[in-house]
Amino acid sequence: MTTLPPTATPATLREPAISRVLFADPRLAPLWLILRLYVGYEWLSAGWGKITNPAGVWVGEKAGVAVSGFLNGAVAKSGGDHPDVAGWYAWFVENVALPNATVFSYMVAYGELLVGIALILGLFTGIAAFFGGFLNANFLLAGTVSSNPLLFILATWLVLGWRVAGWWGLDRWILPRFGVMEHPDTVLADPVRPRQGDPVR
């Protein structure tokens, strides 16, 4: 009779102390709050400006006009020896985005607004920052620089620091309902030293 080998315990990677300090220590919550509010304000003001545009070229009777002009400009940047827009993205713009310009117009305007509101409130901060970065990436792929590189970098940081970026926000009370944090009302222990009861590695 043969005996089966014991089931191996899956290996886990220990998080470096510097990573825990930067991305999981509530003592840095004020710094993350500043970054979060800045990025949130930028998205909120951009979305609000589109939704309340008096010409209605983003949301309203003429929805799709502004985004069509933007997308046609992106296609124009895809030609020449050194194009600003990659050929595959130009194909996506021509065959997917432009035929549905009205839908994309609403998605951009309300997407920017919702990302801004969520970041300012600290509500699902990591998810909101991810979608903000996704918008930035699309604007960059379409050949628009402006503030997109900076906002994309900050959005990436907020995604990395999602555990503490919303600590001074609604995440502190909402995330525990999803099993993300065990003790929402207590400050985490020193991230450099293991907490009492943690296994010794």
Explain what this protein looks like in three dimensions.
- With 201 residues, this protein is mainly α.
- The chain has one domain.
- Helix content is 56%, strand content 0%.
- The protein has helices spanning 17-24, 29-51, 65-76, 87-97, 101-121, 125-141, 148-160, 162-165, 171-174.
Shape: globular
Q: Tell me the domain tally.
A: 1
Distance between the termini: 36 Å
Unreliable spans are 184-194
Largest sheet: none
Structural class: mainly alpha
Membrane topology: Multi-pass membrane protein
Transmembrane segments: 113-137, 149-170
EC number: 1.8.5.2
GO cellular component, one term: membrane
Layout of strands and helices, then pairs:
Layout: H1 17-24, H2 29-51, H3 65-76, H4 87-97, H5 101-121, H6 125-141, H7 148-160, H8 162-165, H9 171-174
Quick summary of this structure?
This is DoxX family protein. This protein has one domain.
List keywords for this structure.
single chain, 201 residues, mainly alpha, oxidoreductase, membrane, transmembrane helix, DoxX, DoxX family protein
